Amino acid sequence: MKKKLNYFCIALASVLVCLLCSNGAQTYAAGSVSSSVSSVSGEIGETKTVDVTISSSEEIWATELILSYDPEMVEITGGVDTSAAGTARLIDTGTYSTKTFSISVKILKNGSSELSVSEGSKVCNIGGEYMQVYGSSGLITGITQENYSGDNSLSSLEISPGSLYPSFSSDTTSYSVSVENSCERLAVSAYANDDNASVSVSGTYLSVGTNYIYVTVTAENGEQRTYTLRVTRAAGESETQQEESQTPEESTEDGGQLVNVSVNGTEFIISDDFAMHPLPSGFSEADYEYGGQSVKAGVGYSGKVVIMYLDAVISSGQSGFYVYDSVSKTFSRYNEIQQPQISYIILPVTSSMELPSGYRIEEAQINGVNVSVLKGSSDEYCVFYGINSDGISGWYSYDYKYNTIQRFFAFPDTIKSQSEAQGVSADADNSGFFSGSMFWKIISLASAAVAVISIITACVCAAKASKNGKIARELVGGSFDDDEDIFEDDEDSLEDENYYDEDFADGENDEYENTEIENEASSPETSDDSVELLDISELSEDKDNNTR
Question: What one-character-per-residue DSSP string does 457-496 give?
Fold first, then answer.
């Protein structure tokens, strides 16, 4: 029973961790979580412990902390679940309101940098509700003693068998060596100029062809310098016979100077061995001048893209093809996306570019490579700057779900942000007839048109009423008083004016009078009179309404 309960707890914790790691929208509970990061200092190369503490008024059930740091200044060596490229992830389950996590860090350089609890950290309470996590930072400081030496040079460098080209000098860091096929390992003897500095040698075993041996000198203060030996081991007997059949012009031995480059703090050597590192499809080998020296490069995409293979001096995982920007004189990792009929190379997004409002530069992983892209309000796509195989460069939209690419012509988030901030947006004006301020202009014009139509209608009705009044005055055969008193006369006055003849004497019987009145009312002389009487009736109704 106890074993089943343990399995249940493990499964429940796993589900919770999965929920914490999801990218869905979060709703926070009433509680919140505060965090604190301790500050430490130490010497270069020293490992220190940083305490990360979280605290809440409610009980915590599961935690996922995202820690950010400068990988050039410090290295996280323990206390986290994952750590790479300046970001570490710490996942923990359990019931508590306050807990401290110990993180081991190694100080790499002199100076100060921050280790922070960053956005994206998630904490759930005992009820499974998310709580707002407030980040914090601690300072990690590398201290260099004043008496520490920064000398990271060699006083001597010797090999056996063979000889260095050019001859050794403490300021020269790249050399070429040629050995016979029988040499399977090169003996390297290197001594630091400073007794307090350390020396390490790697890659002394040789294979047929080109090999690289790295001699790294670490000064007392932690600063490093790397000497590189490019060693060419001759081919065996069968390969030698094939080489002897070649003409002298086909020989590839040059014994030239190696060319070193630095990309984001990592040291590389430009390789010219495209037999070992074949060029991508669509690129052709070419001689290219870099730093005053001729190097081997690949040229493609209508001649607008230059790539070189950079062999990392220490971190071999960083080796690969890089795109060279001749304007900024910088390298960026070669990242090509293949589509059914066209391909794209992602280029760096720099702060000098004119970026749309509402978009921000972020790091994203496309095709397994970290690149700089633009992010807006949606997490379903990003925008990258690149060039396609037709040689057309510009902004392109990348759909994460379907891995599709299309040209990016508009910036929807720009329309929204500029409309909210300024009320008028050039992008909004171009995006549609009913977008932005144009919509309200149309509403205003429509309202004005309705008002004008209403005024015209009122004028027409007034003119019609005036005309009906004129017709009524003509029908009664005299001046028609528009005053309200004409409609307030009693019935006797109306009968005296319209229905009694002056020849009738007072005292006549009522029967005769009534008969005459009924005959005149029921027997109009002409059909035109009936029409005219109808108009008078309408006028009377209008007057009655006005009176009321």
Answer: HHHHHHHHHHHHHHHHHHHTTS----SGGGGS--HHHHHH
Q: What is the rounded average pLDDT of the residues 108-127?
A: 88
pLDDT above 90 as % of the chain:
24
Q: Per-residue DSSP letters for 180-236? A: -TT--B-EEEEEESSTTSEEEEE--B--SEEEEEEEEEE-TTS-EEEEEEEEEEPP-
The mean pLDDT value for 484-510 works out to 46
Encoded amino acid at 437, one letter: S
pLDDT in tens, 271-330: 887 877 888 888 999 999 898 888 889 999 988 899 999 887 766 668 889 999 888 888
Element containing residue 261 per DSSP (H, E): strand 260-263
> How are beta strands 174-179 and 224-233 bridged, if at all?
parallel
* DSSP class of 432: -
Angstrom CA distances, 26 to 19, 122, 132, 547, stand at: 10, 9, 9, 67
**Residue environment code for 436-450, b if the CB has 16+ CB neighbours within 10 A, otherwise e:** beeeeeeeeeeeeee
Distance CA 235, CA 389 (A): 38
- Cβ atoms of 155 and 122 closer than 8 Å: no
Round to the nearest angstrom and report the end-to-end CA distance of the chain: 92
Task: Supply the DSSP symbol for 132.
Answer: E
Please tell me the total number of residues recorded for the chain in this structure.
Answer: 548
Q: Cα(376)–Cα(358) distance, rounded to whole angstroms?
A: 6
Helix, strand or coil for residue 361? strand
Q: Which residues are CB-neighbours of 44 under 8 A, at least 6 positions away?
A: 107, 108, 109, 110, 142, 143, 144, 148, 221, 222
Q: Residue 471 — pLDDT band, cuts 50, 70, 90?
A: low
Has residue 393 got a pLDDT over 70?
Answer: yes
Distance of alpha carbon 352 from the chain centroid = 17
Place of tokens 């790091």: 363
- Among 329, 331, 327, 365, residue whose Cα is nearest residue 348: 331
pLDDT, tens digit, 9 for 90 and up, residues 54-76:
999 888 989 999 999 999 999 99
Contacts of 365-368 spanning 24+ positions with Cβ under 8 A: 366/335, 366/337, 366/398, 367/335, 367/336, 367/337
- Look at the block and give the residue holding tokens 């990003």: 382
- Do residues 64 and 89 touch, judged by C-beta distance below 8 A? yes
User: What is the Cα–Cα distance from 396 to 344, expressed in whole angstroms?
Assistant: 9
How far from chain centre, in Å, is Cα 516?
97
Q: What whole-number percentage of the chain has pLDDT above 70?
A: 67
- Distance between CA atoms of residues 55 and 17, nearest Å: 19
Peptide bond into 280 cis (omega under 30): no
Residue 474 near residue 528, CB atoms below 8 Å? no
Q: How far apart are CA 217 and CA 200, in angstroms?
A: 7
Residue 43, strand partner residues: 143
